């Protein structure tokens, strides 16, 4: 197959050229009917915002352009089968777990997973065992699971059916022993399910970490829109093993995903795949050289860039250390017109383009302006990340029992010892500090308070500082 092909995008171009007038949904009629103030901006993309008419195929019964586009995706990533997702990696994570796990199955889960993983576990009614990650002493960022913790989980829970991993983490740290971790799990007969949202580009090679697909994971979900040039919500799901029933995956996707998939998003996934395939070793080296130049230019103005040896870092993620606090640095950058990916109390994260044409080093003067009026430091020190002290932990209330319990709202300060009835999630990065069904410890409460003081925003914590718990 020719990876330069873009069959779905080409089909949309033909649709745009051939159609005289739309007598079908959507109601904007290829952009002709639209509010005046947005018409000029939207008209180009609306002209290809089609539906399942002749020539445009059907995402859930693909036979033409979508089938060809997904076959090209499968070939590039060397999988058993690959799918376009239009509801983000969230729907991929839901489908990944619900298509492979049955109610009551014991599942080993990396504790610093995205909230969509925990929602999937709840929907699947499994019995999760959480494995706490290691946390870097340098950055206070979790770096992933240790082999020791995983072996402990295998020994204490030999009846586990699956292992759910997050690789890389939000900061682009891809722990180098994950091939061994995945290998151990496969030897034990577990299905390995990986949220690789931030690693759609990991098949590039060279100094870019390897994909979990290359390590033998059974299903891998990727947010193409996070690092590849695809539209927001555009993602991929890859079945990488014949141990996974593709029919179950397809049924789950049809159940969970919209019945009106966005053609612009799907076409952008087609184009993103072709773009990734066009990057050869020479072009990648040029891009990496430009990033190195950018890094050096930022260091020359006094910026500290984290290169933590606890894990192999994605070169397209830059972690900036901040003496004044990450949220304060983020605000200063935004005032200068620079919008970072996210901040935490200690850092700011930049997601860099996989592109040899964008002169990002020319933006260094704006970074210099952003730092100009910041104080030299604050006196709060680093805020540590809290995970359960025990390597392995379970829910205090199972999903089955929780369905029959009454919820009530209590002040956060009075919640110690109670069981959370909702997730409390600093967002971004979307990793729950508290999970639905987890017992609330004093350390959880102190962590929330510290993060709020530092400037973090939360999902699941009400404005009046109350939290939902299960009534005793």
The count of β-strands is 20
Task: Name the overall outline.
Answer: globular
Number of domains: 3
Low-pLDDT runs: none
Structure overview:
The chain is of the alpha+beta class. It folds into three domains: 7-277, Type I PLP-dependent aspartate aminotransferase-like (Major domain) (Aspartate Aminotransferase, domain 2, 3-Layer(aba) Sandwich), CATH 3.40.640.10; 281-372, Aspartate Aminotransferase, domain 1, CATH 3.90.1150.150; 395-470, Orn/Lys/Arg decarboxylase, C-terminal domain (Ornithine Decarboxylase, Chain A, domain 4, Alpha-Beta Complex). 35% of the residues lie in helices and 15% in strands. The protein is built from 15 helices and 20 strands. The chain has helices at 7-18, 36-46, 65-77, 88-98, 115-124, 147-156, 178-187, 224-227, 246-256, 263-277, 281-300, 326-335, 364-372, 399-402, 442-454; strands at residues 81-85, 106-110, 127-131, 134-135, 142-144, 162-166, 173-174, 191-195, 219-222, 235-239, 304-305, 312-313, 317-321, 342-343, 347-351, 392-393, 407-411, 425-426, 458-459, 466-470. An eight-stranded mixed beta sheet has the order 1-10-9-8-6-2-3-16, sandwiched between helices. The protein has a four-stranded antiparallel beta sheet with strand order 11-13-15-14. A two-stranded antiparallel ribbon has the order 4-5. Strand 4 and strand 5 (142-144) form a beta hairpin. Helix 1 (7-18) packs across helix 10 (263-277), helix 3 packs parallel to helix 10 and helix 4 packs parallel to helix 5. The longest helix has 20 residues, at 281-300.
